[in-house]
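Supplementary Methods. Inverse-folding protocol.

Structures were first reduced to a discrete structure-token string of length 317. This string, shown here, constituted the complete conditioning input.
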């Protein structure tokens, strides 16, 4: 079922969803199941599965370092199929521009269609490690809007090199990212919203936001998006702080601001156990306010760990 259909069927009730990352190569999928199991009591209608970019590794060959491309966390589509089968829940693979040619993207989308996956999260992706700016893969897309167009075209039977007359077209519901504190590369919020509207005009049907820690930024973002003519559901993304390093890491990586009250509460903590509890309590307060305001879904960035997400969900759902 499509994300938009889940939201419509909820009739104003706020839904619970979360995002996981594939295990590193060589690790068992059981670890993933062990972290999904405790969250299923909250009846998520869908689960997102991230896709990692390729990265360079250096292999020692007789004293010479050979530079090779690899993916440390492959298997997004396979994990989506496995979770869908095991839990009877919709799964949403993240499809990236970075690291994929248009042909590889088409093959991936065809696989998703065969597997009965109804939703796709279309993302540009980040720059490769060690690179300052995003560089598109040769033969790949430069912008998420181009990826949205390819998915929309496939939905109407338009493949890259031919149009196929068929009664079995894909019908993917397309999600895209939104940034309450604007994308780090956008010169202004107004410009960022212009590009977001373009993705919606091209076929995106819902938006999931980047994490934020001040709900007013989400509310202001939704208001600005509506004024810009964006009328699709906007799902807030929530991440509980868990370790002190997040105070530096999250603003550096995601270009977001942390509220001073949250910073001061974390700085008072003597260990990560206390910080984890602060993060849970802050996320609970965020979630309650967002739910009361009518957010269609509360989407949690779990990073593969479920203990703190479960504590938050118990207080909200």
């Amino acid at each position: 079922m499509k994300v938009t259909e889940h939201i419509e069927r909820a009739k104003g009730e706020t839904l619970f969803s979360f995002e996981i990352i594939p295990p590193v190569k060589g690790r068992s999928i059981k670890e993933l199941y062990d972290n999904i199991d405790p969250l299923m009591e909250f009846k998520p209608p869908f689960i997102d599965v991230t896709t990692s970019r390729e990265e360079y590794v250096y292999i020692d060959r007789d004293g010479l370092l050979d530079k090779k491309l690899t993916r440390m966390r492959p298997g997004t589509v396979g994990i989506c199929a496995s979770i869908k089968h095991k839990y009877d829940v919709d799964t949403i693979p993240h499809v990236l521009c970075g690291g994929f040619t248009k042909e590889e993207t088409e093959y991936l989308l065809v696989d998703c269609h065969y597997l009965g996956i109804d939703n796709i999260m279309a993302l540009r992706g980040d720059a490769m490690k060690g690179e300052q700016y995003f560089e598109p893969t040769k033969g790949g897309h430069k912008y998420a809007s181009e990826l949205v167009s390819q998915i929309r075209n496939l939905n109407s039977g338009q493949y890259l090199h031919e149009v196929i007359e068929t009664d079995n077209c894909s019908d993917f519901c397309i999600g895209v990212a939104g940034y309450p504190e604007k994308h780090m590369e956008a010169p202004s919020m107004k410009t960022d919203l212009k590009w977001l509207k373009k993705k919606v005009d091209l076929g995106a049907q819902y938006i999931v936001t980047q994490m934020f820690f001040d709900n007013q930024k989400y509310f202001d973002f939704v208001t600005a998006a509506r004024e810009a003519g964006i009328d699709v559901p906007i799902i807030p993304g929530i991440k509980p702080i868990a370790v002190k390093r997040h105070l530096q890491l999250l603003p550096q990586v995601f270009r977001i601001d942390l509220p001073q009250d949250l910073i001061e509460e974390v700085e008072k903590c003597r260990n990560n156990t206390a910080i984890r509890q602060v993060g849970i309590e802050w996320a609970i307060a965020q979630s309650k306010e967002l739910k009361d305001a009518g957010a269609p879904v509360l989407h949690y960035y779990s990073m593969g760990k479920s203990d703190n997400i479960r504590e938050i969900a118990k207080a909200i759902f």
